[in-house]
Design goal:
Strand order of the largest sheet: 2-1-3-4
Number of strands: 4
Oligomer: single chain
Order of helices and strands: HHEHEHEHEHHHHHHHHHHH
Structural class: mainly alpha
């Protein structure tokens, strides 16, 4: 025990001298979690608070054009900016290139007349189907000039699809209103009352969104719940830059040879490094979680809600840290130079994070990658954390994520021992 304690003190002293390594292990993850949570929180609140600017050029002089603009405004997704109807497409696109707005809608001059003609055509068909006398179906409304939607190329396809769906919804509302008015007038020979119109058009079922959770709390996850666990895992695995480099330095400066002349075993040294750096990973998790709980609210970000199962959180953090430390030691054992350890370690962690779902959600990956991501220890770390933070589960609920992570950590340990033996270090 005395040998182990002395070795731990030695490793702690070496660690405290590595100022760059400490900055990478603590400073970089803190910056990452703050920056990325800010960005994703803005994305989450895009519809509710940060409305997307939308240029509206209404070249129609009828009522349908005004109703269409009102319908778009009621969606709540856009901040409308009116453009004079005599404004050319060139001027509108120039404003978009200047980032005044990323979207623009141009309503054609014959919008109201074509909507009215289309409504009469549909109403006539409906009346004829009912056995009532209506207008004979013609070709009116068939040649209606389309609504033009300009978008900036920086907008991704998923966002453009949601914008297009919102505009189609507003257009359908205008068309439905006009068809109802035409039908009512054809049958009753008087205008449709406003109260009846509102009842018929706004009589929709509401959608009750409920996030599933294992504890039944139904709390809505925020950006902090998604990002803090992810970048905590990333921070833990980035101890590879300090730990693997430390092992390579000891191999190069002859420490291994000196250890063989002493009445001790290098396994004791590796155990010391595991304990020391496991404490570092736990400190990383504590610092990042504390920032999420106490610092985020003062920065205008949603506070991190810690899981109710604190013992489960501690155990998952301990297992994630142990897996990260095991991986770093394995790289240090096989690397020949410090440059190899740092280069391969950093790149491999980024790759494992990418395929593990830290950068792109697993459900958005292609089918082939969903199989590959299961070999990444970061994937199982993230899934275990998400089971606690997002689903409100307890330790028993995430065993299917903990067991694969434990198996991966054991395999890494065995590979490390094999590497030590073939290099005759033990």
């Amino acid at each position: 025990m005395y040998k182990l304690w002395s070795t731990i003190i030695k490793d702690v002293r070496i660690l405290t001298r590595d100022k760059v390594g400490l900055i990478l292990m603590f400073g970089m993850p803190v910056i990452l979690v703050i920056v990325i949570t800010n960005i994703q929180n803005s994305t989450f609140e895009l519809v509710n608070k940060n409305k997307t600017p939308l240029l509206i050029c209404n070249r129609d002089t009828g009522e349908a054009g005004r109703q269409f603009i009102q319908a778009i405004d009621k969606i709540g997704m856009f901040r409308l900016q009116s453009v004079p109807k005599d404004q050319s497409e060139k001027n509108i696109t120039d404003r978009m290139h200047a980032k005044d707005a990323l979207l623009a809608v141009i309503i054609p001059p014959d919008f109201s007349s074509k909507i009215d003609a289309k409504a009469k055509k549909v109403a006539g068909k409906a009346l004829n189907t009912f056995g009532l006398e209506g207008d004979k179906p013609g070709t009116a409304g068939d040649s209606m000039e389309p609504i033009t939607l300009y978008y900036h190329p920086i907008l991704q396809q998923t966002f453009r699809s949601s914008v297009q769906g919102a505009i189609y919804s507003a257009l359908q509302l205008v068309e439905s209103r006009q068809i109802l008015k035409t039908l009512y007038f054809s049958i009753n020979e008087k205008q449709l009352p406003d109260t009846l119109e509102n009842d018929m058009l706004n009589n929709r079922l509401t959608i009750n969104e409920i996030p599933i959770s294992l504890d039944g709390s139904r709390k809505v996850p925020n950006a902090s719940q998604h990002n803090v666990p992810a970048w905590t895992v990333f921070a833990m695995f980035f101890v590879v830059l300090s730990l693997s480099g430390s092992i390579v330095r000891e191999k190069l400066n002859g420490s291994f040879i000196r250890l063989k002349t002493l009445p001790t075993n290098y396994i004791l040294v590796l155990l010391s490094k595991q304990i020391t750096y496991l404490a570092v990973t736990m400190a990383q998790a504590a610092v990042i979680f504390a920032i999420g709980v106490w610092l985020f609210p003062s920065m205008g970000l949603p506070a991190l809600n810690l899981p109710l199962d604190s013992s489960g959180l501690f155990f998952v953090s301990l297992l994630c840290g142990w897996c990260a430390v095991s991986y770093a030691i394995c790289i240090g054992v096989f690397a020949q130079t410090q440059e190899q350890a740092n280069g391969f370690g950093a790149v491999s962690i980024v790759i494992l994070a990418a395929i593990g779902g830290l950068m792109v959600p697993g459900f958005a990956m292609p089918g082939s990658f969903r199989t590959i991501m299961k070999i990444s220890p970061l994937h199982w770390c993230l899934e275990a954390y998400y089971g606690l933070f997002l689903e409100g589960g307890k330790l028993k609920d995430i065993l299917m994520n903990i067991i694969p992570l434990f198996i991966i950590a054991i395999l890494i340990q065995l590979i490390t021992l094999w590497g030590l033996k073939i290099k005759k270090l033990i």
